[in-house]
Amino acid sequence: MAANALIYGALRTPRGRVRREGGALAGVPAHELFGGLLSEYSRLGVSAAEVDDVIVGVSTPFGEQAGDVARVALSAAGWPETVSAGTVSRMCCSGLDAIASGAAQVASGGSELIVAGGVESMSRTPMFGDKPAFALDSELGELTGFVTIGVAADLTAARFGFTRSELDDYAVRSHEQSAAAPTWRSIVPVRVSGKVLLERDEGARPGTRAESLAELPTLFDDDPLWERAARRFADDGFVRPVGGLHTVATAPQLADAASAVLLGSVAAGKTLGIEPRGRVVSWAHAAVRSPGLWAGEAAARKALARAGIGVADVAVAEINESFAVTPLLLARQLELDAGMVNAHGGAVSVGHPLGASGGILLANALERLEELGGGYGVLVIPAALGLATAVVVEAFG
Known about the structure:
Blueprint: E1 5-12, E2 16-17, H1 30-43, E3 53-57, H2 69-77, E4 84-88, H3 94-107, E5 113-121, H4 133-136, H5 138-144, H6 149-159, H7 164-179, E6 190-192, E7 195-198, H8 210-213, H9 226-232, E8 255-264, H10 266-272, E9 278-287, H11 296-307, E10 314-319, H12 325-334, H13 347-350, H14 357-371, E11 375-382, E12 387-395
Parallel strand pairs: 3-4, 3-5, 10-11
Antiparallel strand pairs: 1-8, 1-9, 2-8, 5-8, 6-7, 9-12, 11-12
Helix pairs in contact: 1-2
């Protein structure tokens, strides 16, 4: 795969806590979150009329996020009605899926300029608010291997030998690094009626200590869906951790956010008079037996192979903290230096807004690579039902 989808911009909103935690963005509908980023591109001089398509990843396309929220966002931003827009849904991988789809359009010559990203208002459209059949129907649950995502995380941690203290230590690191993160250039403050609601990621708690996290109860030890997980892996070394492993502190925090990446050809950049910051090099999807949460390694290795590079060529890794176990596991499997993985924190401390997370990982990786003078980055998100998506990007420095 020799993609030539250049990255001309990467914008995102801050990640806001969900409504029940008093989050600043809880009153803002998804179409307004994403529409605000489209408006910002217009202010930066991008001609909306030149955009061929807008692709938005949404994990829960229900309620306010249903019915092609991408098209609604265009109207909210005042973009021309001649611009096409649609959504894709691959659960937590939705944002990376949108970026890969947009890159494929550009690389194939089918489009010249694409906006791809994602949005999720978990305050207004809760996870599984769409009541998917596999989560409600026991026969479909057995068929697909659906379990509570926390059960999948504990199963994964136990399978690969991670301890409760290792998970807690990772959460401490995430909070410390998020609290010390730079002022992200990609962040567009969310405004309503001229008032700034939020301009930085919410959630980081500096001073978090492992000793205090050790006192928290685990969340998934008594989940009845452990029985399903045991049946799924009865012939494959099933291990159920005694007492559970993940807590509220080592789970990804729920969040509201949007992200929008501007992808285009060389010709599109010349038409707009802007220079590319980098490119999307390759992408890959992978899966393992559900409910395993370890498909990230296969997705990452496929994407790196398609990019024609190895792990040693990667300078930055943004691995979604789908629980504390996921970055720990992938860093071990790929033999990544801890300092290059989520260097400024992640979802355990500042939230995982599902469909928006892919674009956020790309924006963060691009800035980090630019700080280092350019190079390759790998973005990975594992998801429920054994899925994972990985994208390789290159920053030009």
